[in-house]
């Protein structure tokens, strides 16, 4: 299911979208453009695929903790 802009607005301030730049399922310029368009919080992790938390657990934990502290 594709999320609508209204769906994103409901969650955007309380969510951090983490994407690997090698993720063939979720990463594309269109996806990034959509995130920017609605002001979504996101991080793109270089050299990471779809299972970014398994590939870079320490980095992801740091990103999440920093997001939650702000």
Give a concise summary.
The chain has helices at 5-11, 29-38, 52-55, 57-69; strands at residues 17-20, 42-45. It is mostly helical and 70 residues long. A two-stranded parallel sheet has the order 1-2.
Give the biggest sheet: 2 strands, parallel
Percent of residues in helices comes to: 40-55%
Q: Which descriptor suits the 3D outline? A: globular
Total strands: the figure is 2
The helix/strand class is mainly alpha
- Rounded Rg: 12 Å
Order of SSEs: HEHEHH
Q: What is the typical, i.e. mean, pLDDT?
A: 90
Strand neighbour order, sheet with most strands: 1-2
Structure description:
The chain contains four helices and two strands. It has helices at 5-11, 29-38, 52-55, 57-69, and strands at residues 17-20, 42-45. The protein has 70 residues and is mainly α. The protein has a two-stranded parallel sheet with strand order 1-2.
Please render the helix and strand layout as text.
Blueprint: H1 5-11, E1 17-20, H2 29-38, E2 42-45, H3 52-55, H4 57-69
Tag the structure with descriptive keywords.
mainly alpha, about 50% helix, about 70 residues, 4 helices
């Amino acid at each position: 299911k594709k999320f609508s802009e209204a769906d994103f607005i409901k969650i955007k301030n309380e969510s951090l979208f983490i994407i690997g730049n090698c993720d063939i399922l979720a990463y594309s310029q269109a996806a990034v453009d959509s995130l920017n368009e609605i002001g979504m919080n996101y991080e793109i992790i270089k050299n990471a695929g779809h299972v970014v938390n398994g590939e870079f657990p320490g980095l992801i934990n740091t990103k999440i903790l920093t997001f939650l502290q702000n």
